[in-house]
Amino acid sequence: MALSSFTVANYRSFLHPTTIELKPLTLLFGYNNSGKSALLRLLPLLADSVGEPRGAPLNLDSAAVRGAAFRDLCCQLSARRQIDFTLSWDGESGFSSVRNYQFSVLELPGPQAEVLPPVVNEFSAEYFLGQQGNAASLRGTWMPERAFPPPNRALYETWSKIQGHEETHLDSSPIAFRGIKPGSGEPLDPSLWMTVNALGMQLEPLRDEVQWLGSVRRVPHRSREFRGSAPPKLLEDGTGALEILVQDKLQGGPLLATVSAWFEKNTRQRLDVTEVAPRYYALTLGPLASPGIRVNVIDTGEGMAQVLPVLVLGAQARAQGTPSTVIVLEQPELHLHPRMHEPLADFFCEVAMQPNPPRALIETHSENFLQGLQLAIVEGRLDPAHVAVYWVQQLDDGCSTVKLITFNDMALPSYWPPDVFSEDTELSRRILKKRRQKEGR
User: Domains in the chain, start-ordered, CATH in brackets?
Assistant: First the structure.
C-alpha cells in the first residue's frame, strides 16, 4: 500500500479542506508566507505521531512543528480548536487494506484546555477484504463524559458490510490511541478488531516511509568515526549523510556511485569516501582531470554541501524501489547556482521514472527546476502523469488555497497563475527603460 493523498482542514492558514495528491513528482510553488511549508511538514508531523505513547494524538515534539502548541496549528480564521485529517492509500496489501482514514483532533473545552493534551474527536476508516471486494468501515466519536480522565479512549459506533451483511451497533469496548494510531485496549468484537488491526498495520510503516529533509541543512562532519552502522534514514537537517555513504562504500552498495555520478556529470568532480585515520572517514570531491586531488566537501562551497543530503535521500529512495516511500523535500536547490537546478530536476526525473517509484513532495521556488521537468516531458524522459504541481496562494483575508496544475505530453500546463516567474523580464524592462531615459530618448 502506498500513501496516495492527504487532506487537511482548519490547519495553519488552510481553513477549508485542502487535498494534495502524491505523485512520483509533486511540486509546491507559491510566494513566501503562502503556506507551502506548513502543508509539506504535515506529513512528517503525522509520521512522527504514529504510535506516539505520550497520550496525545499529535506529537508536538516533532521538529516539523518547531515547538508549536496545538492552538498554534489551528487556523486562526476559525474559532474551532479542531483539525481534520484524511489519509488515503492505493494498492493492496495482505488480507485487508485500508483505503481511507479520517480523523479529527480537538482541544477539550474548559478552563484547563491549554494544559490538557488534545484528543481524537471523530474518526472513520474504510477497508476492503482481500480478493472478494467486501467492504467494511468503522466510525467513532469521542465521548469525554464517558472516557475522561484517561485521554484518547472512546466508544465507537461501527458499521460494517461483510459478505453482503450490514449491521450498526455501539460497541461498548473502549479503544486506546497511541498517537494517531488506534489500538485495542480491551477485547473487541472480531469485526471491529479486524478493522482496527488493519488500520494500525497500515499506519505503522509511516514512521520510516516518510523521509523529510528540511530547508535548513547542516554541512557534513569534516570527518567522523564509523562505528559499524549508519542511521536508517537522514535526519531533517541532513545529519547522517556521511555515515550512510561510508557504510554504503564498505558494503559495496549503490548509493555512493549514484551520488558521485551526479557530481561527475554536472561538476566534473568525483565524490568519494576517504579514510583519513583508522576508522575515521571524510567525504571528498576531486576533479576528474586530477585524480590525486581530494578536497573535503565542506571546503568546496555551500552549494555542494547543501545538495549532498538531497542526492543521498533521492539515491536511497531509488535503491529501495518501493512506491510506499514518501520523499518530503524543502528547497532542494538551496545555495545552488541556477544553472544546476535543471540537472537536479533531471536526477529526480530519473527517480520518478524507475519501476515502482517513490512519491515525492517538493517545495521549490526554482523556475529552472520546473522547466527541467517540462523539458524531460517534451523529450519523453518523464511521463506527465507522474507530475503534479500545486500553486499555493494566500488570499487577502489570510486563508490559503491550492490550485492543481497538470501537464500534457507537450509539457503545456493546464493553468498558470498570471505574472508568476515574470520578475526577470520585468526587471530587464525597467533597466532598458532607465537606459533610454538616461540617453534622452
Answer: 51-203 (no CATH), 210-425 (3.40.50.300)
The answer to whether 298 and 305 have CB atoms below 8 angstroms apart is yes
**pLDDT of amino acid 155:** 42
Asked if residue 262 lies in contact with residue 255, where contact means CB atoms within 8 angstroms, the answer is no
Q: Do 221 and 238 touch, CB atoms closer than 8 A?
A: no
Alpha helices in 49-179 (DSSP H): 70-73, 144-147
Residue tagged 583508522 (cell numbers): 278
Q: Tell me the pLDDT band of 132, cut-offs 50, 70 and 90.
A: low
Give 14's DSSP letter.
B
DSSP 8-state secondary structure symbol assigned to residue 268: S
pLDDT in tens, 421-440: 888 888 888 999 998 988 87
Q: Kind of pairing, strands 359-363 and 387-394?
A: unpaired
Q: ∠ CA(420), CA(409), CA(324), 5° rounding? A: 85
> How remote is the C-alpha of 283 from its chain's centroid?
27
Q: Which residues contact 261 (CB under 8 A, 6 or more apart)?
A: none
Query: What is the C-alpha separation between 200 and 183, in angstroms, rounded?
Result: 7
E strands along 91-143, which residues? 96-106, 119-129, 134-141
pLDDT of residue 177: 76
Q: Are 343 and 266 in contact (CB under 8 A)?
A: yes
- Measured CA to CA in angstroms, residue 423 lies from 33, 357, 390, 414 at distances of 18, 34, 20, 22
- Mean pLDDT over 347-371 rounds to 96
Q: Are 105 and 120 in contact (CB under 8 A)?
A: yes
Other Cβ atoms closer than 10 A to 325: 24
| Per-residue pLDDT tens digits for 266-318 | 999 999 999 999 999 999 999 999 989 999 999 999 999 999 999 999 999 99
Please give the model's pTM, rounded to 2 decimal places: 0.91
- Which residues sit opposite 402 in a β-bridge? 392
| Cell numbers that stand for 165 in this block | 451483511
State the Cα–Cα distance between residues 301 and 237, nearest whole angstrom: 18
Q: Which three cell numbers stand for residue 196?
A: 482496527
Alpha carbon distance 231, 233 (integer Å): 5
Nearest to 300 by CA among 324, 315, 321, 283: 283
* Residue 164 pLDDT > 60: no
The backbone torsions φ and ψ at residue 239, rounded to the nearest 5 degrees and listed phi first, read -60, 135
Residues 144-160, mean pLDDT to the nearest whole number: 43
From CA 382, how far away is CA 28, in angstroms rounded?
18
Taking the C-alpha atoms of residue 223 and residue 209, their distance in angstroms, rounded to an integer, is 29
Residue 199 CA to residue 31 CA, distance in Å, equals 37
